[in-house]
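Regression test attached.
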Amino acid sequence: MNKMEIIGISIISCIIFMALLSFGIGSIIDFPKSKQYSPPSIQNPLGTDDLGDDILELLIIGSRTSLLVGFLGALFSTIIGTIIGALSGFFRGVLDDVLGVIIDVFLVIPALPLMIVLAAYLSPSFWNIVIVIGLLWWPTTARLVRARAWQLKSAPFIESLLALGASKTYIVFKHVLPNVLGIASARFILSVSHAILIEAGLSFIGLGDPTNPSWGTMLHFAMTRGALLYGAWWTFIPPGLAISITSLAFIILGMGLEQRQKLSTRSMEDII
Amino acid sequence: MKLKNEPSREDVELTAINVSKIYGNKTLALDRVNFSIKKGERVCIVGESGSGKTTLAKILCGMIPPTSGEIRFLNKRIDEMSEMERRIFRIKVQYIPQLPDLALDPTWYLYDSLVEPLRIHKLIASKQEERDLVREICEMIGIRMEVLMRKPGNVSGGELQRVVIARAILLMPYILIADEPTSMLDPSLQAKIIKILLDIQSKYNMGMIFITHDLELAKYVSNRIFIMFKGKFVESGLTNEVLINPHHSYTKSLILNNTS
């Protein structure tokens, strides 16, 4: 394990621990209320918001949604990207031409505006956000996996299997997928960070799931309910920091994993 | 290990008739090549890099199709074979690739890679039989069994090359094509691997094609030699005769370069 992986994993485990804590806190509705916009104190370590809810408790509850949406969105997009990339890279021919065009089209679509439109159109809910992220965040993964699968196709062991008469489905599932798993998992970790940011962005502009508040939702309420005017910095700095630190942790871990990939497979230069 | 409808070993012959290969639109890799090998023969194909040696080897074992010309195995064109005949061809003509490092799946344990061809063709009835066969072959080739419990990244080039050879030998091929089997190894290992290949060849009376750019090696291993230059055989015949009395200027320059 290299230094980046260790740093990334330790921050991420703290946040996961925080998300697990949230199950002990219970629902946001039956929170004991305190005074509105009270600054940080012993009773409310991070102060309270406009409804008198404790910011620290909101932060802990929000971590659950942010992480879950991040993980599921990234998982969804990585699976789509890996399958499309592996098929396209391995079979080449017409299938690759078609999938290649689809990948390119999705790559040039400005993702964030389209996500906003989709999220608004689909009505805000937890799963809709996951699906929107999954559907729009796979092309880069597909590109990377495709390049690797392409490389593998001319590897001697694949050639010899083809000469031996092994079926293409067998080769894709037994040899190509295991070999792109390293790249896919590094991409997955990076995607989690993106997905967390996207979720925060969508929630911030009010397209998040109101029943599952996330860090983005906290920022949204701080903005729309006048915390800025009131000067209540404790309502928006903690969730903002939480979002930055979490996505940074995943980026660091992802970079660490990618480095390991570069060490174990020598020809990664031609991939991007 | 016997296949159903397995042909008797006596009439085994692999032939290339007028084979040409064009890559893309214009790169002529092979130009009307004729070649044949019978069981028990040791044949060398010698030529510089890019002369078309590997292309010919891959066409001979059915990895890539020729642009024109035909490959015949057991007197049957390989592109006109029935499923059954094609299966026998795939099992009985084996190719040992040039680069040992991606010759086996880097994510698989060597044992699984080794027995994979047997499993694909369902040639083995039980795990026990499989293990016995692997043990026997490994002893012959000099692979320690614990090596097989590792992945390709954790073994040396020599061990990997042995596993690649064992993988081809497990199928008991009639014709074995070794494409520069030692080019990535250091000299002392080269000699060992060549000796193993020659032992196997004479033990099972296989037809063996060595592909190399090393004339010394060719002299040592082969009875017949083909000299390849720019996709054509410029000279062929018994190894001793060709090397002692070369006719083509390219062969002469090869011999000159080799001795100097």
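Expected vs. actual: identical. Residues 64-271 of chain A form a domain with the MetI-like fold fold (CATH 1.10.3720.10).
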